[in-house]
Specification:
With about 190 residues, this protein is mainly α. It is about 80% helix and about 0% strand. It has three helices and two strands. A hairpin with an 8-residue loop joins strand 1 and strand 2.
Length: about 190
């Protein structure tokens, strides 16, 4: 479509709009039930009545809004008080927990010192037992007792295995057999 065609199209639309407006005004003047001054007076009265109704509705809306704003404000104040109370309770609980934690920490620090001293003392005693010439007889007794316990444990284990019926002969005390029929090993 060319520019000239568009101008003609717009001009035709504008002409149709102008013709429809003139015809509408003409039909309205011919069909009017009363004179123009009477129609304007009736319109003013209707607009005044609508304005009064609008004012009444607006006033009623203001009253409802005022009541609603009081209800909302009161509810907000109640929520604020409850929130403040919950916050204060939480802060108080946190302070109590902090004090309990501090008390426990102080108690644990006290027992930590005693435990540390006992551990150091046991370590020193063990070091003395393992290195001192004066403790050589005690070391020998500890070795003998440990060997006795080991031999007894192996013997009990062997008896247990034999009672279960593994079909293996009970080995001599102090030796273990490998389930894959390998050579006995001393422990």
């Amino acid at each position: 479509m060319t520019t000239e065609d568009r101008r003609e199209s717009r001009g035709g639309q504008f002409g149709a709009l102008l013709l429809a407006t003139v015809l509408g005004v003409g039909v309205g003047l011919l069909a009017a039930p009363q004179a123009g001054s009477a129609t304007r007076r009736a319109l003013r009265q209707r607009l005044a009545a609508v304005g009064e109704d609008f004012e009444d509705e607006l006033e009623e809306l203001r009253e409802r809004g005022g009541r609603a704003s009081h209800v909302v404000r009161d509810g907000a104040e109640r929520l604020h008080r409850r929130g403040r109370k919950a916050y204060e309770d939480a802060v108080e609980e946190l302070q109590d927990l902090r004090e309990q934690l501090e008390d426990r920490t102080e108690e644990e620090e006290g027992s930590g010192v005693a435990g540390t001293l006992l551990a150091v003392g046991a370590g020193l005693a063990a070091a003395y037992l393992m290195t001192s010439e004066r403790a050589a007889p005690a070391r020998q007794k500890v070795r003998e007792a440990a060997a006795g316990f080991r031999d007894e444990a192996e013997a009990r284990w062997d008896r247990f295995q034999h009672r279960r019926g593994n079909g293996q002969a009970a080995p001599e005390s102090g030796t273990r057999t490998d389930p894959a029929d390998s050579a006995p090993q001393t422990s």
